[in-house]
Write a structure and sequence with these properties.
- The complex is a heterodimer.
- Helices cover 72% and strands 1% of the residues of chain A.
- By secondary structure, chain A is an all-alpha fold.
- In chain A, strands 1-2 form a two-stranded antiparallel ribbon.
- Chain A is globular.
- Chain B is an alpha/beta fold.
- Chain B has two domains: 176 residues, Rossmann fold; 132 residues, Response regulator (Rossmann fold, 3-Layer(aba) Sandwich), CATH 3.40.50.
- Chain B is built from eleven helices and 14 strands.
- A six-stranded parallel β-sheet of chain B has the order 2-1-3-4-5-13, sandwiched between helices.
- In chain B, helix 7 packs across helix 8 and helix 8 runs parallel beside helix 9.
- Chain B is elongated, with a radius of gyration of 22 Å.
- Chain B starts with a helix and ends with a helix.
Chain lengths: 322, 330
């Protein structure tokens, strides 16, 4: 009974149902090789959803993740063109992503601007910067070195490196969020900022760190994305930030902050990933595909709303006439 | 930087203006492009020079603004009117904004045609399209059929389900299908011009249709993503990815063999044809009226429709034999 109330378990159950439903129409979908493919394909979404989840925990939102991804991805592609060795490129992408996240974080922290406004602005600035860096030109497959393109697809123990990166991030941030003072402070800041201040937590600083984590993950994903699709241009991952936020919402991360888990975000991302990968093979008209993705989000939010609604508290007892 | 560029461009133009009168006997055809320094248009200028050499007694003035603005083009057009050129062939940054200036040019007896990117009908005598929906539709199926002598299943990976251009091309491709016996179009899917969605759709096609032999993507993002998906699935040689793409973007896919051939307009031919037509009209050998047929040298004849528009030719096919030559151009 108790286990049914756990949202993550429910979502995992829904995910299995979904995969089962797809398998009824297209049996090859549940072949292990294909499931590995689906997980690998969803890895960028998982990475960004974890970062986004931490930001949402602190009562903020980061709409610039996809633009950050695109900017760092383009920078990685250009650095590769200049002949920089791969480890340095990876380091540069992560640091650059973190720095871009810090820009968001500092604006939220020091100037107190609402995060949705800050990140809407930086989203356009980041995309614009790619245009300035390249003049709108593309970096294409033949302009990238083989090693640069090969890393995310290299298979270790049956899984591509990109999947391993996602698994590592899941493990790392599960531990950070549940076992470290920093992780707990994200929950505290979002759950009750005033109480957090009394316990000695700097709310703005914690939010800034959340943005830096989200940015660093976006930077890393930027490299993975560009290497995987072997192309970098201004519009890569256009509109991806909405999928990332949707993954968090489906995963039961409270949009008002303070509640959610890494597993929730991962399950939310996988849910969208399965839908994204299933729609092309089950032969549903493209006109329906968007409606289906949209419905999944609305249903998830509706479930959230009914589950999280606090029961009314009776302040005054009803007067019983004597 | 931009000021220096502009100053240089102005200086260059002034020099060009002063140099002109010496060659007054030659017919002077101005090739006005969207902006200077774009590989595609530099290639078109090469084609124009080729036409000039073939015709003899023609001087090409290759010019354009330093950035792709209509205002910049209007300045250039005004300078050309003052200079008294014989013909202007323009690829417009804005179909309406440049029309009044071109109208003035026509009032002074200058032949005006547009090519590549058109001008509103009142601002030009005719427009030369690089190709037409029928020719494109036919070409994309032919590209797949060329490498499938025994026929086979093919699928189309388009942009969004509402992209006007792609939908017209696909409609024409479907009409052309009966001309290619054995070619069986099994599905049309939409990658929304997003690399990740196009990649997934291509993967989906390969899973759903195990006998698939070719993926046709009439969009640059789609053709790239599909060739990457085919490469990652280890199906190079089994599935040929083709469609419309740019040589600079497709060089990697052609090199790996995922794409055997693809098509897009040839800028050299386009500059050549525009020059031939401008010459024909300016010399009075041809008139721009609906139904007229204007010779374009080695390319054939341009036949004008009711809007005085003509299509040059099939899109040009690029493959391993010519990709290296074109990948640095555009």
């Amino acid at each position: 009974m108790n286990i049914l109330k756990n949202r993550d378990v429910l979502l995992a159950f829904a995910l299995v149902l979904l995969i089962g439903g797809v398998a009824m129409r297209f049996p090859a979908f549940v072949r292990p090789a294909n499931l590995v493919n689906v997980f690998n394909d969803t890895s960028p979404l998982i990475l960004l959803a974890i970062g986004q989840m931490i930001v949402i925990l602190t009562k903020c939102i980061d709409l610039s993740v996809a633009a950050n991804l695109a900017l760092c991805g383009m920078a990685a592609a250009l650095l590769n063109g200049m002949g920089l060795p791969l480890p340095l490129i990876l380091l540069a992408a992560v640091l650059m992503g973190g720095a871009l996240g810090a820009v968001n974080g500092l604006l939220v922290w020091k100037l107190g601007i609402p995060s949705i406004v800050v990140t809407l602005g930086t989203m356009t600035i980041f995309r614009g910067s790619i245009f300035l860096m390249t003049g709108g030109a593309w970096v294409n497959a033949h302009q990238m070195s083989d090693g640069f393109k090969a890393l995310p697809r290299m298979v270790i123990l049956g899984l591509p490196v990109m999947s391993w990166v996602a698994l590592a991030a899941i493990a790392l941030f599960s531990v950070i969020l549940t076992r470290t003072p920093l992780g707990r402070s994200f929950y505290a800041v979002g759950g009750n900022p005033h109480a957090a201040v009394y316990t000695g937590i700097d709310v703005g600083r914690t939010q800034c760190i959340a943005f830096m984590i989200s940015g660093a993950l976006a930077g890393l994903t930027g490299y993975l994305w560009v290497a995987r699709y072997a192309v970098a241009y201004v519009d890569i991952a256009g509109g991806f930030e909405l999928q990332v936020v949707a993954a968090c919402v489906i995963g039961g991360i409270a949009i008002v902050g303070g509640a959610g888990s890494v597993i929730g975000a991962v399950l939310g991302a996988l849910f969208l990933g399965v839908i994204n990968n299933a729609l092309p093979v089950i032969g549903i008209s493209p006109f329906w595909q968007m409606a289906i993705s949209g419905s999944a989000i609305v249903i998830a939010v509706a479930l959230n709303a009914t589950q999280n609604r606090p029961k009314g508290r009776i302040i005054l007892k009803e007067v019983t006439p004597t | 930087m931009s000021i220096i560029k502009k100053a240089l461009a102005t200086a260059a133009m002034t020099t060009a203006l002063m140099a002109q009168p010496a060659l007054a006997d030659d017919m002077r055809i101005a090739l006005v492009v969207k902006a200077l320094g774009i590989g595609f248009f530099e290639a078109a200028a090469r084609g124009a020079e080729e036409a000039a050499a073939e015709l003899g007694g023609v001087e090409i003035i290759y010019t354009g603004p330093t950035s792709t603005t209509a205002e910049g083009q209007i300045e250039v057009i005004n300078a050309l009117i003052a200079q008294g050129v014989d013909a202007i062939a323009i690829s417009a940054n804005d179909p309406d904004a440049v029309a009044p200036a071109l109208r003035r040019a026509m009032d002074r007896g200058i032949t005006v045609i547009s090519w590549d990117s058109g001008v509103a009908p009142e601002g030009r005598q005719m427009h030369l399209n690089p190709s037409s929906p029928e020719l494109i539709g036919n070409t994309i199926i032919r590209l797949a059929a060329d490498h499938l002598p025994d026929g086979g299943d093919v699928a189309i990976l388009s942009a969004t389900s509402t992209s006007t251009n792609q939908n017209i091309w696909i409609e024409e491709a479907t009409k052309a299908l009966p001309n290619f016996p054995g070619i069986n179009l099994v599905a049309t899917v939409y990658g929304d011009d997003l690399a990740d969605k196009s990649y997934r759709e291509a993967q989906g096609l390969m899973q759903t249709y195990p006998d698939l032999r070719a993926i046709i993507a009439p969009t640059t993002v789609g053709i790239l993503a599909a060739s990457q998906a085919v490469t990652d699935a280890g199906k190079i040689g089994e599935i040929n990815v083709t469609g419309l793409g740019l040589p600079s973007e497709m060089a990697g896919a052609v090199e790996s063999g995922a794409t055997l051939s693809f098509a897009i307009w040839n800028p050299v031919d386009l500059g050549y044809a525009a020059t031939m037509i401008a010459h024909g009209l300016a010399s009075g050998n041809a008139t721009a009226e609906p139904g007229a047929s204007i010779p374009m040298g080695r390319i054939g004849d341009a036949v004008l429709d009711d809007n005085n528009e003509a299509a040059m030719s099939d899109p040009f096919t690029y493959d391993a034999s010519n990709i290296d030559e074109f990948k640095s151009i555009f």
